[in-house]
Amino acid sequence: MTSSSSTLASPRPEADRRRWFALAIVMTAAFMDLVDVTIVNVAIPSIQRDEGASFSHIQWITAGYALAFAAGLITGGRLGDIYGRKRLFLIGIGGFTLASALCGFAVNPDMLVASRILQGAMAALMVPQVLSIVHATFPAHERGKVFGMFGAIVGLGAVSGPILGALLTEWNLFGLEWRPIFLINLPVGIAGLILGRKFITESKAPHALKLDLVGVVLVTLGLLMLLYPLTRGRELGWPTWGYVVMAGALVVFAALVAYEKRKAARDGSPLVELSLFKVKSFAAGIAVQTVFGVGLGIFFLVWTLYMQVGLGWSVLRAGLTGVPFSIAVSAAAGMSVQMLVPRFGRKVLQAGALIMAAGVLIYIWEAERYGMSIASWQMALPLVVMGAGMGLIVAPLTDAILSEVPREHSGSASGLINTVQQMGNALGLGLVSVVFFGSMSDHLPAPEVGPAFVDAFQNALIWVAVVMTAIFLLMFALPKRPAQHVEGAETAGTPGIAPLDKAPELVG
User: Fold this and answer.
1) Around Cβ 244, how many Cβ atoms within 10 Å?
2) Of 92, 167, 319, 369, which shows the fewest CB atoms inside 10 Å?
3) How does pLDDT run across 138-168, given as a tens digit for each residue?
């Protein structure tokens, strides 16, 4: 916390025209992170082909990013509170840009995996500062408009990522093949770093919490012990040590719970606020968010492999095939928050789970009926249905989870929501080796690869349908009609944005 002498005596934020430049900078960084997640998926088969990457490498290129991002989100937010949001944002965007360069110039799959993990860790420093900087820079009466713009950026990132990734890979700029999907971040990141230093105002939390590095280590260790055997087990013939390590992960998570209880009693700054789980709607919502992340982690990776490796489609065709899905997600998300949830409450989210499950079942039926001859336009129906279901869930879910959380814990709860979503995604990516690759032979003759991928895709979708059914049942524990947060009124209706419980302190 800074002294009063360091508090800015400059004009109020609403009188400072520079805040709109600051907004453009942090929104561009958020967009860069969102695109980077979706842009990679569509290029995965090209990376595998050009670099000779194994299937476990493929999983870690995506899961490694998600794991590092998840493990660092809460810590990144707290570092911003303690040392300054502007400072951490600049460190994060600088590190993210450097990691992007390392990804783009990776000489082998192992270097690419390591660079992606670094990229996820840097995103965990950068992303939590975005909303905090907005909250510190804009007065309350302007935040509704600003957060609405943030929601639009989220939708634009979801739509443009796969298309941009497909185009950059297909164009093979300067003979670099897939590498421009990472190198495109360099000019954007450098510009953000230079302009951010000039236009972003520094801020800190008035009562910053201490870091819980032990908690971070235990969470990361537990996840690694769970994910590494899952991703490598099939290649190694499911050795006994793998099962022992996965069982040990449960011990690590139990130690995490015990440690967090002691830390909460000692200094009130645990990584995970365990008292939140006494709130029924929050505990159920966290379960929904985690399981939902698992389902999405499975679907998006196997979907890409199915189209490009199984069906032999070009990266551009695969990217364009996903456009109806992205549009449906964005459209349904807007309707869900503005029109449906205020009237029907929890039933909208449950309908979303069932609609998404229905879309998955239609996809399974079509993959079985049309086999290798399936066309992009035939996929449009299941993708639109799945996208509509997903949109009904993702937009209002955060508000539903937070609706009964005490105001003083809203910041911690919001960070935990984002963290478990990424953890679920990483776990889903790890399970791909079981639900997708586990259903096909290791050494297939060329004519059998396509049909094997089609069958494996159907098998993976059955798991996704089961996940959606489980989500539907878990949602019965959510409040029937989420209450509005008094302090969060300006953020109502914006996906993934929780009210901030304390006004930040501007510092010089």
Assistant:
1) 11
2) 369
3) 776 776 667 667 666 766 666 677 888 888 8
